[in-house]
Write a structure and sequence with these properties.
It is a single chain. With 124 residues, this protein is mainly α. It has one domain. The chain contains five helices and no strands. Helix 1 packs antiparallel against helix 5 and helix 4 packs antiparallel against helix 5. The two termini are 17 Å apart. 20% of the residues are buried.
Length: 124
């Protein structure tokens, strides 16, 4: 397992653990106030559970042989979709706060690290 893969997995794990523990604070960086039970549930599910699942599959991927390439590609595409959504929103809303800009940067760095780690020219 390379340092790049470990760093991306820890990025997702950090978000996941924090979201499960502090759902009301998770989106404060985005200036979103989550106070309802359903809102906290959604944060724990998406930011918590999904991010921990991604971290887990990234940690486990090296043991999966050729299947690891598909996992890396899926995570790269997931991150690219998040970046697309942020840029699309920026274009429509004519702006982006510090929180979304920070996450866009972290998502782009994660893509670069995964692309550096994975060898998408060879699927064997």
């Amino acid at each position: 397992m390379t340092w790049q893969l470990i760093l991306v997995a820890l990025f997702f794990a950090g978000i996941g653990v924090y979201a499960l523990a502090k759902p009301g604070s998770t989106l404060k960086i985005m200036q979103i106030d989550v106070t309802t039970t359903d809102g906290k549930n959604e944060i724990r599910a998406v930011y918590g559970g999904m991010c921990l699942a991604i971290a887990g599959v990234l940690f486990y991927a090296p043991a999966l042989g050729a299947a690891r390439q598909g996992i890396y590609l899926a995570v790269v595409l997931l991150l690219a979709g998040m970046i697309f959504g942020r840029i699309f929103s920026f274009a429509l809303d004519q702006g982006m706060g510090k929180g979304p800009r920070l996450f866009l940067l972290l998502e782009a760095i994660s893509i670069a690290l995964l692309m550096n780690h994975a060898d998408f020219t060879s699927w064997s």
